[in-house]
Amino acid sequence: MIMQNTHHVGTGPQTITPAQAEMYLKLNRQNRKFSERNVERLMRAMTNSQWKFNGETIKIGIDEDGKEILLDGQHRLTACVRAGKPFVSYIISGLDPDVFDTIDSGKRRSLADVYSTMGCKNCSLLASSILMVDQYTVGRLGLSNKNEYPNDIAGTLLDLYPEIVTSAALIDRIKKTLPFSGAALCAGHYIFAQIDVQQADDFAVKMSKGIGLEDSCPIRHFREQMIRDRSKRNLWNRNEILGSLIKVWNHVRFARPMTRSVNKWVPGTAPQPVAK
User: What is the pTM of this model?
Assistant: First the structure.
């Protein structure tokens, strides 16, 4: 047996090596649905030494035959094996396998709730935008949904994209004059700031205020398009807005004048725009 403890007792934080993770995974007989993308995100964090211990546990049960069974932790353990890097976690053993159905039950906390408990600010804006940034980064903007992101990945996402906090603080101050989702501009600002921080700030403020924009300015045409569509209740979703914002950014960055707004980017119908 891997664990000597046969009671509902948690050990202190333990460093789990890839070899140990492989042993625990052999006990995986009834764990929840496997998410390859979740493993990829966790593996990136471990590989880049961005993994942080957040109190999550590896849960081991004892079945009716006295054999150990993995109840919770398959994604973290798999990521550990693939990354070839150890990670720190609590381990709880001796659980009745019947508790599997109660894991993560009750009212589900949102990602924004998790960020609130972590002491973050602008939590709703932060949660919405950081998911779009991750989808953009892995080339799946608009092709994934928030249900593919379990709450225990909140800290990992923040470790991967720490500057998103700065983007959220800026957009929170200027979002009231935006004619579209603040989360889309927050994600866009983060992406653009990786290229040019000052230009990203300027882009966001102009997009919000809409003041002093020339007739040929791509920002002006996009804002006006958003205002027209909003008045007609022809609302764009956040991913469509972000994809279109990236196209506007590219025009602004290379000083390309425009006489009309960029066409709406629709997920799945064209290659994902890339900020340049």
Answer: 0.67
